[in-house]
């Protein structure tokens, strides 16, 4: 897969890095997108009526078909909400309707949204430290006992960890006992790397009879690199919660199925499988390059997506100010660990979704003493 030149496209990731630097921070990809998405947008753009749109119920069936084919999971199309905004907004909307009795719990490090969104919603919260063994991060399921609202990034941003079925089932059982909800943010789930046995456990399927106590959130935004046209979809088996969510959306003048989002989502879910398989091979190869170049610094071996969580000190950097030093002296831009929680000063997050040659250059710069 060749790279793409994003000059002049208004890319936030490259704007953040600045001239002459390689952008390895923000979570989007510098690899070519699915051609069918561009073609579908171009075709729709040729018709000059861009008025209000209805939500095509066929979009729910497409999501269900995607889950059946890619994850081997049966999803009732009735559960699917097709949301005309990105996952961050969807989480904020959920927090505005759920009303937990106890503090919201989420694992830390976290992708940089859960804490901010709980604060914005005025909800008390507590970040629960992940456990770590020789294999990488583990979910300390017992530490979530009693919580009636748990937010989970699955697979995990920033580490790329794919949680086990037992971990997800344990969390679902805990929240169900408390009469609550497990919100599983699975926007990186279609990017699980090829593996002979490891499968991403989709929360709604693992929870089984407890499915009503889960919301599974996903989007084509991360998978197909279309986050600039925000959309996502939520699997919400509880009809009462679905109703509350659509009512709250209507209060904000929002409705399911926006014009461009539907075009993008349809093209991605209809045609994206083979493209995604090729992308996953590229990402897995890039992951191996990173692991080979930075062996002692990787805190948890990535199993999905294109992010790796690093120990700055093991890279020969100071625990404080590592990102700034890399930016000023080595011309690479990574995300600061503190974006994932204030306590993570000694860490960095690196995005390796870029062409091999650029990644090699970036790794050379990163390891230069
Ligand atoms: C796990 C996770 N959830 C939610 C989001 C938010 O996505 P968006 O900003 O497109 O709404 C991100 C973005 O990186 C993410 O990684």
Structure commentary:
This protein has 369 residues and is of the alpha/beta class. The chain has 2 domains: 12-30 and 273-366, Aspartate Aminotransferase, domain 1, CATH 3.90.1150.10; 59-270, 3-Layer(aba) Sandwich (Aspartate Aminotransferase, domain 2). Helices cover 38% and strands 15% of the residues. Strand 7, helix 6 (165-177) and strand 8 form a beta-alpha-beta unit. The longest helix is centred in the last third of the chain and has 21 residues, at 273-293. The radius of gyration is 20 Å and the shape is globular. The model has no long low-confidence stretch (mean pLDDT 97).
Descriptive key words:
369 residues; binds pyridoxal-5'-phosphate; globular; Aspartate Aminotransferase, domain 1; three-stranded antiparallel sheet; alpha/beta; 2 domains; 38% helix; Aspartate Aminotransferase, domain 2
- CATH topology-level name of the largest domain: Aspartate Aminotransferase, domain 2
Task: Give a short account of the largest sheet.
Answer: 5 strands, mixed
What percent of residues are in strands? 5-15%
| CATH level 1 class label of the largest domain | Alpha Beta
| Order of strands across the main sheet | 2-10-9-8-7
Question: How many discrete structural domains?
Answer: 2
**Can you tell me the CATH architecture of the largest domain?**
3-Layer(aba) Sandwich
- Give the CA-based shape: globular
Helicity, in percent? 25-40%
Structural class: alpha/beta
Number of strands: 14
Note the gap between the termini. Answer: 30 Å
The arrangement of helices and strands along the chain is HEHHEHEHEEEEHEHEHEHHHEHEEEH
Number of helices: 13
Bound molecules: pyridoxal-5'-phosphate
List low-confidence stretches.
none
């Amino acid at each position: 897969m060749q790279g793409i030149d994003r000059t002049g496209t208004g890319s936030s990731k490259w704007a953040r890095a600045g001239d002459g630097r390689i952008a390895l921070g923000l979570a989007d990809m510098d690899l070519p997108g699915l051609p069918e998405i561009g073609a579908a947008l171009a075709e729709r753009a040729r018709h000059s009526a861009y008025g209000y749109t209805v939500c095509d119920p066929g979009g729910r069936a497409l999501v269900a078909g995607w889950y059946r084919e890619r994850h081997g999971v049966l999803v009732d199309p009735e559960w699917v909400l097709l949301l005309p905004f990105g996952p961050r907004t969807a989480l904020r909307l959920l927090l505005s309707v759920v009303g937990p009795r106890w503090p919201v719990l989420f694992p830390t490090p976290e992708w940089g949204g859960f804490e901010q969104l709980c604060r914005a919603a005025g909800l008390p919260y507590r970040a629960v430290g992940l456990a770590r063994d020789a294999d990488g991060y583990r979910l300390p399921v017992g530490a979530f006992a009693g919580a009636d609202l748990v937010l989970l990034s699955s697979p995990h941003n920033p580490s790329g960890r794919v949680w086990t079925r037992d971990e997800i089932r344990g969390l679902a059982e805990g929240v169900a006992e408390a009469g609550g909800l497990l919100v599983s943010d699975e926007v990186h789930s279609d990017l699980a790397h090829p593996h002979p046995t490891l499968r991403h456990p989709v929360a709604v399927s693992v929870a089984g009879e407890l499915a009503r106590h889960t919301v599974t959130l996903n989007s084509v935004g991360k998978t197909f690199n279309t986050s600039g046209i925000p959309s996502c979809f939520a699997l919400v088996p509880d009809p009462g919660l679905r109703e509350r969510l659509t009512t709250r959306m209507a209060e904000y003048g929002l409705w399911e199925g926006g014009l461009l989002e539907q075009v993008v989502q349809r093209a991605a879910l209809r045609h994206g499988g083979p493209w995604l398989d090729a992308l996953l091979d590229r990402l897995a190869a890039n992951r191996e390059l990173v692991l080979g170049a930075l062996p002692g610094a990787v805190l948890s071996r990535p199993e999905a997506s294109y992010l790796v969580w690093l120990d700055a000190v093991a890279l020969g950097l100071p625990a404080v100010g590592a990102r700034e030093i890399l930016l000023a002296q080595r011309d690479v831009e990574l995300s600061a660990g503190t974006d994932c929680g204030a306590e993570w000063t000694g860490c960095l997050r690196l995005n390796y979704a870029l062409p091999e040659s650029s990644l090699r250059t970036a790794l050379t710069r990163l390891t230069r003493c």
